[in-house]
Specification:
Length: 458
């Protein structure tokens, strides 16, 4: 077992043969049931380790892969068999506000033994995911997440469509979840809960069988609380989408994924096995998953040339600017902030309320609004990350363009953007979806410690 400092440098346990089977909705109209409950799972192979107590949807981590088609309606009965409140958020979906699943904002939390029907249309294709949106820093860390894939008729034909959900766990020496560190004020004011054990689809270094010379779509999802992953695919690979949204097709073997971000690759396999590695955190690349080449069992698809997507051009004019200065955290410049209507020193905020971060000098609760916007307006959130930490900022219900400090735009749209320390960038979106939308850091401890606010659109 690795120490916390040695994350991603640990020697590997024996590879498992663990292609996670995808549970697909046979009929999109039939409601599916997702039940949150406690179960156990072996995270670290080997006799000297124990099963971990995890919280899971339908007893599996990740939860079942939901795979539907653009235009389908997703209908899910959520049953909460935990002994605390919970909810499900559909990350990246431009959802109906009442179905967005933010406990305490768009719905009351679903109480123990309670249930809630989520039902909404899937208007965008791409790689999304679902996760608990109640006490996320604990519930997501314990395993309450799963993939949500929306297919489109125009998707490139592939032989294998694989989802890799990547997570890091902070484990005790016996391979169980380190419970004592939940809620650590140190983590909340620094980089969040960073794990010491890497899993892909809940397994340690899974091996997934793929056909020789096949074409693969690889959908990578970062489900970690706070860890930024760098992922390398040593093959002829094309990046085609980020956060579910198409990007100009480009040959690329590397991608950086902040918490909640996704990337889609098309890979043309040869006849050798591929090891997908994590490259950002350790001294050496750390093997994350193996694609093992086997003889094809059916004819392979024709590898059509990938066509460039038509990207929506960013707007030329902005109706509303929302200046947002992110402050606080360890080694930060925040000496006091407003919380519950009162200006309080940072020491009191941290020790009494476990708050460490602020937007524009204020620590928000769900009911505090960053801005009220009229429907249809073009909005620019002018973010300045005036902290010593990276932050993965996520806007619910919308996809945004990213405008760099020099005025240029990144290609495509996203739902989560990683701000480097000190970075200034504008998140530009058309406020076309009414409701109360959360805007928060997806480093889940940062959110819990103050990095969240609500944009109201009506
Ligand atoms: Cu992945 Cu507030 O969400
Ligand atoms: Cu953050």
């Amino acid at each position: 077992m690795t120490s916390r400092r040695n994350f991603l440098k640990a020697c590997l346990a024996t590879p498992l043969l663990a292609a996670t089977p995808a549970l697909t909705l046979a009929n999109a109209r039939e409601p599916l049931t997702l039940t949150a409950s406690k179960t156990t799972k072996r995270l670290v192979p080997g006799n000297e380790y124990n099963d971990a107590s995890v919280w899971a949807f339908n007893q599996t981590v990740p939860g079942p892969e939901l795979r539907l088609k653009k235009g389908d309606t997703l209908s899910v009965d959520f049953l909460n068999q935990l002994d605390e409140g919970s909810s499900i958020h559909w990350h990246g979906i431009r959802n109906i506000n009442a179905m967005d699943g933010v406990a305490g904002l768009t719905q009351p939390e679903v109480i123990p033994n309670g249930q809630f029907r989520y039902e909404f249309p899937l208007n965008d294709s791409g790689t999304y995911w679902y996760h608990s949106h109640a006490k996320t820093w604990s519930q997501v860390a314990r395993g309450l997440y799963g993939p949500l894939i929306v297919e489109d008729e125009s998707d490139p034909a592939v032989d294998h469509d694989l989802v890799l959900m990547i997570d890091d766990w902070f484990l005790a020496n016996d391979g169980t979840i380190d419970e004592a560190s939940f809620g650590s004020l140190h983590d909340w004011a620094h980089g969040g809960r960073l794990g010491n054990w890497l899993t892909v689809n809940g397994e340690s270094l899974p091996t997934i069988e793929v056909a020789r010379n096949s074409r693969i779509r690889l959908r990578l999802i970062n489900a970690a609380n706070a860890r930024i992953f760098g992922l390398n695919v040593p093959a002829s690979a094309f990046l085609i989408a980020e956060d579910g949204y198409p990007v100009p097709v480009q040959q690329s073997q590397d991608v950086i994924l902040a918490p909640a971000q996704r990337a889609d690759f098309i890979i043309d396999l040869g006849d050798t096995d591929l090891t997908i590695a994590e490259t950002l955190n350790g001294e050496k690349p750390y093997p994350a998953a193996i694609l093992k080449v086997v003889e094809p069992s059916k004819p392979l698809v024709t590898k059509a040339t990938l066509t460039q997507p038509l990207l929506e051009a960013p707007p030329k004019a902005i109706d509303v600017s929302i200046p947002l200065r992110m402050q606080g955290g360890a080694m930060g410049n925040l000496s006091e902030a407003t919380y519950k209507g009162q200006l309080r020193p940072i020491r009191e905020l941290a020790q009494t309320y476990k708050k460490a971060w602020a937007f524009n000098g204020a620590i928000a609760e769900h009911h505090d609004h960053l801005a009220k916007i009229s429907i249809g307006q073009t909005v620019s959130i002018e973010v300045w990350n005036d902290t010593r930490w990276n932050h993965a900022m996520h806007l619910h219900g919308h996809h945004f363009w990213i405008q760099k400090e020099d005025g240029s735009f990144l290609d495509g749209k996203r739902d989560t953007y990683l701000f480097q320390r000190g970075e200034k960038a504008n998140l530009v979106f058309v406020a076309d979806n009414p409701g109360l939308w959360l805007f928060h850091c997806h480093m889940l401890e940062h959110h819990a410690a103050g990095m969240g606010a609500v944009i109201e659109i009506s």
